[in-house]
What does this fold into?
Amino acid sequence: MRDFSDEELERYSRHIILQDVGIEGQEKIANSKVLVIGAGGLGSPVALYLAAAGVGEIGIVDGDVVDLSNLQRQVIHTTADVSVPKVLSAKAKMEAINPNVKVTVYQKFLDASNILDIVKGYDFVIDGTDNFSSKFLINDACVLANVPYSHGGILRFGGQTMTIKPHESACYACVFDSPPPANAIPTCSSAGILGAVAGMLGTIQAAEALKYIVGVGDPLYNRLLTFDAKSMNFRNVNFKKNPKCRVCGGEGIKEIRDYEAVVCEAKL
Amino acid sequence: MSRYEIPQMVYDDLETFKKNHADFLAGTLDELTFKTMRVPFGVYEQREANTFMVRIKLAGGIVTPKQLLTLADLAQKYAHEAIHITTRGGAQLHYVKIEDIIDIITTLHSIDLSGRGGGGNTVRNVMADPLAGTAQDEVFDVSPYALAITSKMLEQKDSFALPRKFKITFSGSEADRGYATIHDVGFIAKIQDGVKGFKLFTAGGMGAKSRLGTLLRDFVPDTEVFLYSQAIKQVFDKYGNRKNKHAARLRFLFEDLGLEEFNKLLEVELEAVKAKGDWEMPITEIERAQGDTTHEPFTVPENIKKWWNRYVYAQKQEGLYGCKVPVHLGDIHFENARALANALLPYGEDVIRFTGDQNLYIRNLTAPQMASLHDILQKFSVEVSKPTLFGDMVACTGAATCQLGIARPRGAVDAIQKRLNKLIDERDYDALQGFKIHLSGCPNSCGKHLIGDLGFFGKVQRNEGYSYPAYNVVAGSRTSGDGSVYAQKAGDVAAFHVPAFVEEVLDTWLKHVKAYKSFADWIDDCGLAIVTEISKKYVDIPSFKEDKNPYFDYDAVELFSLKGRGTGECSAGMYDLIEADKKALKEALEKEEKDYELIRLLSARMLLVTRGEDARDKVGVLKAFKQHFIDTTLLNAYFGTMLEGDADEKSIELAEEVIKLYESMDHTLKFAKEKELAAAANAVHEEKAVHFKDLSGVACPMNFVKTKMELSKIGSGEVLEILLDDGAPIDNVPKSVAGEGHKVEATTKEGNGWRVRIVKK
Ligand code: HEM
Ligand code: SF4
Ligand SMILES: [Zn+2]
It folds into this structure.
């Protein structure tokens, strides 16, 4: 059993008091490694909450630099960070919140050539990306590497998320099969996004990650949570794992390939 | 006789102390160990490193002219030229060098004065009504009792290793000028059926959780003064809380036990003291000069009349007079001390008393003799020629020299005086005869703020992130044998504004002074709200940018901060000794090349103090260790085999075992094993291993968090015992623990808090 210092006991006291977390749960958190892909609208709250929670090691991936138009929702960055690589800006905030956390940065975009190696080293992955090709790539990699992850997506006033335990629960491809054709969806720059919606969804993803690590509650397995902030209606849509799934089914994928990019202009 | 007797034991202790002192100077004795030896001799380090002060016991504040002469010499030679009068009527020499300590103590012994028990967890200076033997209203002279009990207490070994300090005092009348109602043990003179005796109060005291004394006995015959004092001390010694020095004073124990339980324990100790014998205390009355009744009636010369009316009083002995001499902040320049002592030499021994308000009284003079002192006294202090208000201000040493200090009350007194002095011709401050302004640098109350008319104690305030010195204001205390009342909280003021605040409070009070019997009456009637209202004007200060002055305390060259504030060494004691050995032991264990002999010695010595042993040489230490720790089965007999012959690597096991034992010690110095043994002796005994965590002083919810931490370390079915504070902790933690499915087996009151026994689910 790990002996928490008094500083740590105090810092994490509100976790430890929770009967379902306790010392044991906090220890699991401290020993866990989580990869956050994307340091944007979703990645910001996720990275902040995971750092605050004391996740032992957090990897954060993003190839971009901070842009003024990001600041409306990507709350980990500040005005002073404009033009700074997002991962560095994020790392600084996470370490400021909690110096006990080890932050590893990947200042790059993921593709078929590098994603598997990075994902392999983590216990849990957060998809905080802004485009379908990345989302399918992440799904493929997590299934192949057998790493559980949280999918998330947002648009205008709405969001959706599900948690995937490869080979046990439905994967992203079980539900959506493959990316829509490039012109079938509104481009994100024309669609826009309410900043707070990113926060809502990101914090749900952070909570899912922590639930998974501690082993408490029911993760969003086999169900897609969707919400509409205008009406504030939340809905669970149940799915089953597809035995013939292109990715995780019996014949599932054996190797990684890139999907055709449908990159959103207004990065989430 | 106007002196107490220093018993042989103190001289013997001094011989040991001399050796330790030499070792310390030679660098072969570490600082911490030396500290635990010097403090009980009244030698403290001041805030400024490497400057020391020596506290000297003056029973009842009594100083003979001869003693004063020698004190003046010591002050001149060693102590920045001043004798300091303490807030309990003792004396202090400040700024002395550590090299000179032995010379000073030896000289003090030659004039029958001792610093033994001046500081540390000891029986402190015994106080008495400063007017004892002269007051019109007194029942009888209590001074001889203060002297006699000082001698008696100095003879007792247990007077020097108590859980905390222990203060005794005597008052001659219900006016309680000796403050019997706020001491650990306080006596107020009383005659019942023609027998001399005392009302006995106990468990009073100021500081954290101030408490007024409880009337323990309505009458104790004077022959039993020592009997009771010693028995109360033994109760304190046995049951007091040694582990937490902030809850160690007798008043905390008393609160825990309650009057009834305390009395039960006291009865046992009374019997024990009686059985031991030699508890009757010989009393030698103080010889007194006869009043000059034959003299022509004395007319006070016009030019000294103002002074005479303010400061001179007629004693109960017809034709004799006493006189109060205000001493600025309790500091007497050695030349003034010498002049006064020489002038008083012809008039016998009982002519001077130092007082707890840091002034002194002259006594037993005829009117012409007194009048002849006027000129000498004028030089004594500026206050002599002012209304009593000025001289009656009391201030502790504060942050200027005290390591615990927050504010600097001595500087504040100067500033108040300066401000009031400008008004002295416009205001009738003589109408406020006897008004007391008391200041302490922190809540510890060495300046006795709780018994002032207007009291202040230091605190920190912040303005836009900058700290500045400030005071809590209290007002309206009363002292009397019928029940004293501490001054009540009236507000906060910035240190910078204290003089203006005092001026306004006094101006307001002056408007009402005729309508009330006392300031306390006014405070109780409507004054408190008025003082509070005034204080509000004086708490805020300009921003740091506008004016930096309020951010400096009086007499301070540096910006106010708590830097340099340390833990006071006024209770350096047993724990420091143990910690010193433990630290040395850990160092020895970490060394590459192990000195097994040293490891064995330190291991064996570390806990000996808890058994009242102070052997320090190897043979004595090993023998005592065997007796107290092996023969008692506290440690396995296996460890006994390590004590013979040369030490070897097995000493490391011994060290680990001793450290473990220490960790299991509770605040009454009992080891977990000891309690188990006691329980085993009582037959029914549970087998389960008991883990222990002291969470007293840990607030919610961290106490619960730490409990969970401890539970996570032990196996299912094992037992964890924790100590929790009273109040929210005991209300919440057991519930939460039970809520998580563990079994809370027992909750028992222990010390100030609770012991909770938990079985892990
Ligand atoms: C560096 C530490 C300290 C210094 C220099 C100091 C200084 C003094 C002095 C010089 C006196 C008059 C003593 C006498 O003549 O017997 C005194 C009295 C007193 N001390 Fe301290 N003290 C210190 C720590 C403390 C602490 C920690 C407390 C309480 C927790 C305390 C509470 C008192 C009280 C209540 C009195 C005054 C009055 C009385 O009982 O009549 N002191 N102190
Ligand atoms: S009241 Fe505080 S500052 Fe003053 S002497 Fe006592 S401990 Fe020091
Ligand atoms: Zn699938």
